[in-house]
């Protein structure tokens, strides 16, 4: 195994130092290290972060390998600075059995670019009718700890209660897609002034907030861990703040796009901006940014949702919701938060690794720690060209935008997956 001596790197924004990576771990740190056998990387001006961890990735395999595979999504993740991703269960077949989660887990190991941790479905076929085999998925080789029907809400309160009770035994977590389905029938975008102007059916903020309010109360009643996917409204932030103050075991994520883009984008009628939950207002964005700084929202998760061309380049009403995220998330975080490296490390690596219980991830580079890390050039700016993305899909909302920051290298257990900004395999 090649050793790497990373020279003059700022670890999470601290004074520059050297890092020696050997045998899969950070072997030494300090100024002026020597290691004659090591490959030297000059990292002057670069920042080392613990490898990013995405709690919400759609990899589309099995079933829609034309849109993404475990391998192509893993490569996109590595290029985005990630060393671990949690793969959502809305595949075809649905990841609601030990067999399917083991298949995804094995494909992730074979690709070997990031650790792929499958998420199991809460209900059979995501249909919301009966609980999936949560225990069998937890006991499988994939050791599933997060369960989610993402894309669908677990709308039945009794089933949600049972799911929360069930996973408590193995410290699992239910990740809820908060959307009261009766309030979003036929919805095409955020319900507000813009939807009225465009004459499109609205997805009201209260459809999200009502489910979060219900579920934090259920989680408190049961004493279980609840995670809220893609929080998108100011009202949701208020509900979460209240729940956290009461000591409810709830965590929450926000996506890069909900931190940056508003519902005004729908006026273009370009379905690349169609996403679930929908893009909201500038006031929501301000509240989400505040909550992220404060810790009411724990993490940034991408909700990387690749879609084939025919599912996106069509009329708005027929387009599938979702946008790419893995290869641009760190740039959007830098744009939104500025060079607050400790906050970025917390929200994009340490906290998601803790929530998912991913051993060896989310740890700042230090002697003895597994070498899962990424090197960022904060001074670089890049133009996003959809055709250059590693994802099999092209549905990025940032096409031709100039974004700050570039991932220069990513290491997974001491092996580079990205070097000089390019995937190693
Ligand atoms: N976030 C999205 O807009 N899409 C997700 C599922 C979902 O959450 O609707 C997808 O799988 O495409």
Automatic annotation (TrEMBL):
Co-factor binding details: Binds 2 Zn(2+) ions per subunit.
Binding site for substrate: 58-60, 90, 276, 307, 321-322
Entry's Gene Ontology BP terms: 'de novo' UMP biosynthetic process; purine nucleobase catabolic process
Cited InterPro entries: DHOase, DHOase/Allantoinase_Hydrolase, DHOase_cat, Dihydroorotase_CS, Metal-dep_hydrolase_composite, Metal_Hydrolase
Residues of the active site: 303
The protein's enzyme class: hydrolase
Binding site for Zn(2+) 1: 56, 58, 150, 303
Official protein name in the record: Dihydroorotase
Gene: pyrC
